[in-house]
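ok here's Ribosome maturation factor RimM:
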Amino acid sequence: MFNVGKIVNTHGINGEVRVIRITDFEDRFNIGQSLLLFTKDSNDPVRVVVDGHRKHKNFDLLHFESYDSINAVEGFKNGMLKITEDQLSPLEEDEYYYHQIIGCDVYTTSGEFIGNIKEILSPGANDVWVVKRDKQKDLLVPYIVDVVKDVNPKEQKVVIYPMEGLLD
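and the structure:
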């Protein structure tokens, strides 16, 4: 299961919910999309189908089929909207999902083992991969062509060219 949004509140009285998007795919909340809703009150997910979507400020406002009042969606607050692996969109060459990168071992172009990618940050122009190293501070690797030379998710291996000062 993969997170695509978090319900932070209800909106109005007609069953809309306010969602913080956790996906780069605009079509994830299109009308007709099926999502799994996980709430703190239930161990079993609820399958919901989007039948209304609009943007409001920095949020996505969603309405689900058969949930037509604020009372029906009140329990959805703080719930996570997820999709299954078969709902993932195909990617272009040299594009990867975070779950494919997190956990990969990182090596230099000379074959030296650096560590393991534990997190991905998205501060702006490019992603930054956080590499956990043994007995050292975490290494921040910018995901740019000059540094990241090879990514092989099947082998869980990333090769980087350590620009001057990167490993310090």
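+1. The mean pLDDT is 91.
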